[in-house]
């Protein structure tokens, strides 16, 4: 584990010790939006020459009476951590908001639904060149991008899915899809699971999905979150990836293997 990973894990543990809920996440995202537009304030809250207590005190004075005491406590914990820049601080604060939103979904028994929906939204964006280009465009305003995603999913997904898809438009991990990917990794971590990404030619029915999930859990020796993408190009069978391991059993793959063998004759 790198020093950065260790610091992130320590902060997760600290914030995890604070009793939070979905409202906390929403307020944290509002604080993030405020700091995104205030470079001087970002620098002050991440200033390494200032003491932890001074930075936390500044955050408390800034937010007292404007957000809940719980949210103030989370922000104070985040600003006490060492950050390389004001932008890194804001990204770290948003990460805690995402984790808290996902934790609220887990507590309500909706985490699996949110995972599946976020995965589907990211796939939809990837498969729509115009939408994907608009979300990547630096010339397109952030509010406009969020409106595009909102029109795509409003009323069709869980409230947390809608909230996090809107946050992912900011693309702190370079692209919308990579940012959603980071959310899915956090969700799997909260659930103590590994992510299994399956690609199939036709949608799996409930029985097929259950049997596949059970087989994968037996393979990895632990709980698995199964995210399935339908791609007619695979023709038949299934392709599953877990971490760096890939399990391939598709007609397309077998045809490609046969083609290569013929070429090498």
The major sheet is characterized as: 4 strands, mixed
Mean pLDDT: 88
Q: How much β-strand is present in the residues?
A: 5-15%
Straight-line distance between termini: 47 Å
How are helices and strands ordered from N to C? Answer: HHHHHHHHHHHEHEEEH
Number of distinct beta strands:
4
* Major sheet: arrangement of strands: 2-1-3-4
Amount of helix: 55-70%
The total tally of domains equals 3
What does this 3D model show about the protein?
One of its GO terms (molecular function) is proton-transporting ATP synthase activity, rotational mechanism. It is found in: Cell membrane; Membrane. This is ATP synthase subunit delta. The protein has 265 residues and is an alpha+beta fold. The protein has 3 domains: 1-107, no CATH class; 109-192; 194-263, no CATH class. It contains 13 helices and 4 strands. The protein has helices at 3-16, 22-36, 39-46, 52-63, 69-80, 86-107, 111-126, 129-136, 142-153, 159-168, 176-190, 206-220, 251-263, and strands spanning 194-200, 224-230, 237-242, 245-250. The protein has a 4-stranded mixed β-sheet with strand order 2-1-3-4. Strand 1, helix 12 (206-220) and strand 2 (224-230) form a beta-alpha-beta unit. The longest helix has 22 residues, at 86-107. The termini are far apart. 30% of the residues are buried. The mean pLDDT is 88.
Provide tags for this entry.
265 residues, alpha+beta, 3 domains, 4-stranded mixed beta sheet, globular
